[in-house]
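Q: My labmate handed me this sequence with no annotations at all. I'd like to see what the chain might look like in three dimensions before we decide whether it's worth expressing. Could you predict it?
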Amino acid sequence: MPEETLTQAEDKPAEKKQEHHEDQTTLSEYLESLLVTVILALFGTSFIVQAFKIPSASMEGTLLIGDHLLVNKFIFGGTGAWYEKILPYRQLQRGDIIVFKYPYADHQHFVKRVIGLPGDHLKVVDGDVYINGKRLNEPYAVHDSSVFADPFNYSCPPARGQMMSPNAIQEWKPEIRKYVQGDELVVPPGKYFAMGDNRDHSQDSRYWGFVDRDAIMGRPFLIYWSVEAKSSDYNTESTFWSRLAGVCETLAHLPTRTRWSRMLRTVH
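A: Here is what I predict for the chain of 268 residues:
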């Protein structure tokens, strides 16, 4: 009996040690899984896919305010990196919709369509875009004759002595003259000329200049969700409480405000 009691007395601490070890193993496995998930998520949003939303009307009617997009950050090559030879990259093409970092504000992203490639001679005449002397076919472009008669909506670049658009930013006004040859704007190497599809409601390369290749983040390929919204809902200058009220209103009316017909629609 004493031996049996001794054996039982020694077995109990061993069982407790084993249970404690299993608890530690389980916790470490959870932490390891969480760390791997975070790393994969960071890698994915940095190099593969990232979500963005449309806060303005500059791309209507291709993209609407309230469209939530998935952006392929893995598609564009042409930078000369060694891995482009083995990965499915392609070069930027005219007509590609791109998401890029706005050159005059930190942490601000724009979505526009590539119109001019490096080396292109470009001009806007009576609202039509001409590339290297030929009128560009743009079935996606939308014009609104009711808006203020901005000179850049009808003619760009400005001829010598022509009034500059009041919507052009101050840094671009003297710069644009440097790229004008005759009546055309020449896109420099490593730069792109981007415009919004909603031409009369778009702040684009006409007003602030070229898009640098390194600023281009990727190409939107899918609308994963779309909600009825206004530009004011995404206005960063609005107060915290007004934005919170807008979010609460959207959530309260989510089924009715969701644009179900735009869900999972590809972007072209």
